[in-house]
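Record AMP-dependent synthetase/ligase domain-containing protein, 577 aa.
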Amino acid sequence: MLIEAFQPLDAPVPDDLTVPQFFLDPYDHPLKPPRPDDVTLFIDGPTGQRVSWAEARQRTAALANGMHLQWEIKEDEAVCIFSPNHIDYLTVVWAIHRLGGVVSSSNPTYTTDELVHQLKITKVTTVFVHPAFLKTVRDACQKLGIPDDRIALISPAPPSHSHLSVNDLIAKGSQQKQSFVERRLSPGEAKKKLAFFVLSSGTTGPPKAVAIPHYSLIVNVIQIASHDILTPGIPPENKKTTPGSVMTGVLPFFHIYGLISNVHSMIFHAVPIVVHAKFAFQEFLDSIVRHRITHLMVVPPMIVLLCKHPLVKKYDLSHVRFLNSGAAPLSPELLGPLSEVLPNAIISQGYGMTETATAVTMTPITERMCKPGSAGHLVPGVKMRIVKEDGSLAKFGERGELIVYSPSNAIGYYGNDKATKETFIDGWVRTGDEVEYTESGDLYIVDRLKDLIKVRGFQVAPAELEGHLLDHPAVADVCVVPVPDEYSGELPFAFVVLHAEAAKRVSDPKEAAALKKALEKHVSDVKIKYKWLSGGIEFTDTIPKNASGKLLRRLLKDKAKQLRKEALAEAATRAKL
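=>
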């Protein structure tokens, strides 16, 4: 059956505005609260520095002009941001958009080879980088022939650095007349005009660049706002944002969850965002108390710490009014302890993907606690089908693959027609997630049909790790599967078939341990940390496959789970001795 959201998307959505034109310029939207010039948009967590709406607008305009004067950034040119969260991160994003460019947001802990892959597939010409990660960027740019003078620093650096900084470019742009004409899009053009390349592993292989137009981000923010404001029967105490609300900004802004749900959604509601470069638990708790943060956007590993870390008892978190968990399923067992830690908070959960430009479902705003295991209800304007293995449509309570239509859906994978055709079908997105849907409107994520591992909310494609492991001279065959982990959700675990000579050596336990360490290093030397084989490695005689040669991962998942359980139990026993 075809399932539609209980609530239609009745609020207007402009299709002729770019992201900064909608969020920074005086555009009057019926759900958008008034914002005086001095309303705070960003607060730097460590220093308390504040940036107002007027300052953000001025800095964005000056930076765009400085970038155009310095590099003549052209329409549809891709610019990469390789930085942790920073108080000027969105200034850079919006300045690129003012010039008609596309933001290629990148994880700053990528290795050089991983960054080369992203810069290459998104055709980046210019990079903004935090000084701490400059070496990686310079090495990657050198491999691709990107000139050193096309690298700029998002944060001021010591005088020894010759690269221009954001502040340098803002100064340059503010001292001269505007050198470019910001284009107003034609009606409907925002649905195709690209705003972001955000990387996603899709179903297989190296990460792919999801092409997200301006309209997708804008409409998803309006979908979330409609869900929060226009739902009938919202009790006053469940109203999501009120004057005095403050949001934490610790989720990475390069990730779709942080970019849309955390940042742009809160900017739309004029809620200040406390920016932290990275998640450090004690700093996170200190910030909640020091800045009187009322709203938390988090992922399940953070919730595990909130529920179990002894530090929490030293902090009064009773002023927190709202927590949303996303990017990975939240264990139902954590809901009780979480409500004790945050006794006055609405606890919500959502589901979305990079390919859907984030939120597809959210806990109904009429509920103060998400149902255990439920990802919530469809947000306004979303439709879905649940397709069973035989191709028929599932009924209530039956399992099948979730296929989603949302006005926020991305266009496809940039420069990859084959992968696009596999996932994006006539405006619908195949999620690869196995789900159940109930008559009450709740969506339950049961399993993943596509071969992805979710580590702290980040996607890991087993095929990417398998391809790399097969390059090791000792490896004849390999299969990577997820194993459950209390903190990270899942971790990669590798079953490895060795070539005959190596297989003889590992009969000696010392040799086996040494080879496992060598294989772990083979991965960790070139892959970002969440892709490391932290779940474990097991040598095996064969990898089960079907007649066509496809890996039968499901047969190995249970075995890996048991091996991981035994290894943890053995480690716990040793720790007691």
